[in-house]
Design goal:
about 300 residues; alpha/beta; 7-stranded mixed beta sheet; 11 helices; 7 strands
Length: about 300
């Protein structure tokens, strides 16, 4: 499902993968890749030592530990490509994160991202991130993260199977009636720790494009959207959107180029096929019949 993304990545030039854990998308020696994480290799092993879902023997060695900004950690080196998978939703400041990535990319370099689409994940019942929240954190610091963490704790469902959401089989009732979950959310808010793996930022295909469009309106980011694909265009049961951002510093200084990019992204948003859901259901039924799951 992701292999087509390789065409945006030159294997001979420097690449950086963020948070590869045990299963990097860009592997050595096929790619000239470095790995970054917010923890050192040993700290990652300690963090996951008792997690039955993570084989700590497969954790890849980390080249750069990001404790401040990416530029501070990496220094003078720049990259042709940065790749991340299910990372951006965890960042404490999403605008700041994108701005930092632009600082370590060569001009024309790409940030290739796989981002969970909330419609098909445990974030299903949460509201999408409005630009105003991201901008507020960017301008006023992380004081608002407790509120975003509370939303995660309150409204995440325990099911993370895309097919169930596509078929409409999941109800919010189990969350609403879960007293223990509510008490845990209250306690988590009162004793907030931002290092816990919250999804602070919640996106769909359209909402992420809207977020980038509005970031350009506010002259915040030097990125054009080179490619964006919704989960419906990937495969049945996909739960992530794919985006390739290309660094173009002229977007910060040339208003005409900026307006042209805003117009392009807005057209993509408005032309999003509103029949995606119907097509996805049809594809899902066909897939289920092929697999012998259920009956029509």
């Amino acid at each position: 499902m992701r292999e087509y993304l390789f065409k945006y990545i030159d294997p001979q030039k420097n690449s950086l993968e963020i948070g590869p854990l045990t299963d990097p998308f860009l592997t050595k020696p096929q790619f000239n890749v470095y790995y970054a994480d917010i923890r050192s290799t040993e700290d990652i092993k300690d963090y996951y030592r008792h997690d039955m879902n993570v084989d700590i023997k497969k954790i890849v060695p980390v080249d750069y530990v990001i404790t401040g900004t990416y530029k501070e950690a990496i220094g003078a080196m720049n990259f042709n490509t940065v790749f991340s998978s299910h990372v951006i939703e965890h960042t404490t400041c999403v605008i700041g994160h994108l701005s930092e990535i632009s600082e370590i990319l060569h001009e024309g370099g790409r940030y290739v991202m796989c981002i969970p689409d909330k419609r098909f994940t445990f974030d299903h019942f949460r509201e999408v991130t409005p630009f105003r929240d991201a901008y507020d954190v960017y301008k006023n610091g992380e004081k608002m993260l407790e509120r975003l963490g509370l939303d995660h704790m309150m409204n995440c469902h325990n099911c993370n199977r895309p097919i169930q959401y596509i078929m409409g089989n999941i109800s919010f009732e189990s969350i609403a009636l879960d007293t223990e979950k509510t008490l845990s959310a209250i306690n988590g808010y009162e004793n907030f720790k931002k290092e816990i793996g919250y999804h602070f930022w919640v996106f769909t295909y359209k909402s992420f494009l809207s977020f980038i469009r509005d970031s350009l309106r506010f002259n915040l980011l030097p990125f054009e959207v080179e490619m964006a694909k919704s989960p419906e265009l990937l495969r049945v049961g996909a739960n992530e959107l794919h985006v390739v951002l290309k660094k173009n510093s002229k977007l910060l200084t040339d208003r005409n180029k900026q307006l042209s990019e805003i117009r392009k992204i807005n057209k993509w948003i408005e032309n999003t096929n509103h029949n995606f859901k119907i097509k996805t259901v049809i594809k899902t039924f066909a897939w289920m019949l092929k697999k012998g799951i259920g009956k029509l």
